[in-house]
């Protein structure tokens, strides 16, 4: 397959056999990530976000479709992809420091013991684990502290692709803010490529270059790719004053409140109508939107040429009876 993006996800499908029959979580998810891009994905609970992330990590295999990273098919886990799971997964018999060191040693096998330690401590301190907490085992840490160890481990291994599944969900607002700032700093310095799941629209706007919006499942899909055209560097205290902030925020909230369900109902109708695969694919192709640019253009007194109407249903040009 010709490489188009650093990460290419094509026609990804995932089906599970359940006691109530086959569950199609999604059957045609396609998108790409460029090198250095920060992409967030948002969608209602159960639509399949973690399932996609696990496939990208190589920890789960898809029922159909392909994932390519840097031109190579993803099959199985790799140290080139660092993951922070929704439910932090640490080695329970190792201390926080030892958990991070374990990842760093595997990633940089040539490093001396002292370099591994120094590097691991730097990341543990970054997430606020110090004063003895770094030597405690996971069972002696709070949920938020465990999540911070898991974040430190993923960041410290400096993978080509960082996969984050609601990484800050268990953290208090202050710690969350500090780690978001660190993540912004790391991304600015290293051009880290990140794919992140979040339920927090403000967090997505602060961090992402692009936000993918998923319809409700089953048969979920990526319906929109929302560009976050707010200049960097971004600062949590001032970003809300950017003219593009609320147009993007409103767009995301509208999607979660109504369009995710409306589009999912419409997709069901398109599938039930028995159209060809091509017609279905066209009807369900993701729409690219840039609410901030649209708002700026409107404020300047003109409509952007070809600005897509996000409320318009996906295009349906041809219908046949197949
Ligand atoms: N092993 C499995 N067997 C059967 N169904 C599964 C399995 N794993 C996940 N599912 C189902 O797949 C769907 C998608 O799950 P997934 O965990 O990807 O959702 P999610 O979007 O990450 O949700 P949340 O926001 O709650 O984390 C859900 O309906 C879930 O019940
Ligand atoms: Mg999930």
TrEMBL record:
Gene3D superfamilies linked to this entry: P-loop containing nucleotide triphosphate hydrolases
Biased segments, Low complexity type: 281-305
Primary residence: membrane
Source organism of the structure: Thiohalocapsa halophila
GO MF entries: ATP binding
UniProt cross-references to PROSITE patterns, sorted A to Z: ABC_TRANSPORTER_1, ABC_TRANSPORTER_2
A Pfam family the protein falls into: ABC_tran
Biased composition (Basic and acidic residues): 266-280
The protein's name in its UniProt record: Nitrate/sulfonate/bicarbonate ABC transporter ATP-binding protein
